[in-house]
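Example record

The entry below shows one chain as it appears in the dataset: sequence first, then structure tokens.
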Amino acid sequence: MVTIAKQSSGRTSARDVAVWDPLVRLIHWSLALTILLNGAFVEDESKTHEWIGYIALALVGVRLVWGLIGPKHARFAAFPPSPARVSRYFKAMLHGDRTVHLSHNPLGALMAYNIWLTVIAIGVTGYMMTTITFFGVDWVEEAHEIIFGWLLFSVALHITGVTFDTWRSGVNLVRAMVNGHKNIPEGRGVE
């Protein structure tokens, strides 16, 4: 759904596009909460830490299924992971292109896949630490910590990218992830 806003002079001022459905937004913010809780507030070896980890894995699992069956902008086809698309995106940005991507831009797509895979890897190593075979095995614990460090780095890059793309495109991406709509400024191309 695209809504065109009119200025009092009758000119088109912006387009309001419904992009992120409620499930995508719920999963996004819930996953962010699980990362924050397990990273900053919950004791590492507690049952609460373990259950929050399982919730994070479940959220990613639901999101992956939703990427196959969900609405248009939630589907993987809307944001395929493609180094070629990233290269074209960088070149276009360097030439001043401010095209708005309705789903994830090519860098955002790579980051989404990266974060999902990283959460899965953290969950797998976390689960391994609860098994008889891998309980107390140093390399599993170290892998779990290293992968979590990578997740924190990725989240920092994600926030930086969101900030940059909000500035570059003029679309408040945080607001879009809250209300589900991208308000596209006048004169911006849409992809």
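Notes for this example: The helical segments are 22-41, 47-69, 83-94, 106-128, 138-169, 173-179. The two ends are 15 Å apart (CA to CA).
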